[in-house]
From TrEMBL:
Family (UniProt): Belongs to the class I-like SAM-binding methyltransferase superfamily. EFM4 family.
Gene: Mettl10
Gene3D superfamilies named among the record's database cross-references: Vaccinia Virus protein VP39
Domain of life where this protein originates: Eukaryota
GO MF term set: protein-lysine N-methyltransferase activity
Sequence ranges assigned to domain Methyltransferase in this UniProt record: 80-210
Entry protein name: EEF1A lysine methyltransferase 2
Any one GO CC term of the record: cytoplasm
């Protein structure tokens, strides 16, 4: 699978990924498990080794461009520390490194995702990207003081965990508070949560800084956004 723009295909795929809500969360799904992501990235690693395909960019290339436009608009310095939570194939970090960002870190709990990111980064010949296998809900190392944290689809995945997802969402907010500097920014892109729901999830210790425009769709006389993209600031 390769990435597309934030147009029809990817948006349709994102929309179809929208999980079914139940009270206080979503119907649990395999997408919330490490086994699922290990299998996904093992396959993608094999595709990369065989064909050089970097694999899926969650929400499409436009979702990366949207974040980069925000980073550039706000003149975030090139030495700002950035953490990509659940980096997957690490392609967001690759784009940041190409722009000259030199203090960037990607974590993922799937060793095959980190192996894939490492292979892509090596092929691109980009130094200065730190990668680590880490469960964001149970961090083994002291990660802290980041200026910016990015989440593209990871909070969505965690929300689908079959085993006490509500607790895991709470732990996510705690971990985020621990790694982000005061006044630091958290850029989240989600296909399962609306703006209001995300503000509610992150109401303790975070406030809305900006909502980033995302594509809209119309269906049956109603229109909406398939993806929510917010910038929150740690208070
Ligand atoms: C939907 S994918 C998004 C990948 C990447 N951010 C992107 O935009 O292409 C979700 C990612 O979150 C990772 N993930 C899920 N739960 C995690 C956790 N507790 N700690 C670290 N990574 C996690 C998965 O392994 C997967 O790489």
């Amino acid at each position: 699978m390769s990435a597309g723009a934030d147009g029809g295909g990817v948006v349709a795929a994102a929309r179809s990924r929208r999980a079914s809500p139940v009270e206080g969360g979503f119907v649990p799904s395999a997408l919330g498990t490490r086994e699922h992501w290990d299998a996904v990235y093992e396959k993608e690693l094999q595709m990369f080794q065989e064909y050089g395909d970097t694999g899926e960019i969650w929400f499409g290339k436009e979702s990366i461009n949207r974040l980069i436009r925000w980073i550039q608009k706000h003149k975030i310095p090139l030495d700002a520390s950035v953490l990509d939570i659940g980096t997957g194939n690490g392609v967001f970090l690759v784009e940041l490194a190409k722009l000259g960002f030199c203090n960037i870190t990607g974590i993922d709990y799937s060793p095959s995702a980190i192996q894939l990111s490492r292979s892509i980064i090596e092929k691109e010949g980009l130094p200065n990207i730190k990668l680590k296998v880490e469960d964001f809900l149970n961090l083994s190392t002291k990660l802290s003081g980041f200026h910016i944290c990015i989440d593209k689809g990871t909070f969505d995945a965690i929300s689908l965990n079959p085993d006490s997802a509500a607790e895991k969402r709470k732990q996510y907010v705690k971990s985020l508070s621990g790694v982000l500097k005061v006044k630091g920014f958290f850029l989240i892109t989600s296909c399962n949560w609306t703006k209001e729901e995300l503000l509610d999830e992150f109401c303790e210790g975070f406030e809305l800084f900006e909502e980033l425009p995302t594509p809209t769709f119309s269906f049956g006389g109603r229109s909406g956004n398939s993806v929510t993209s917010l910038v929150l600031q740690k208070t």
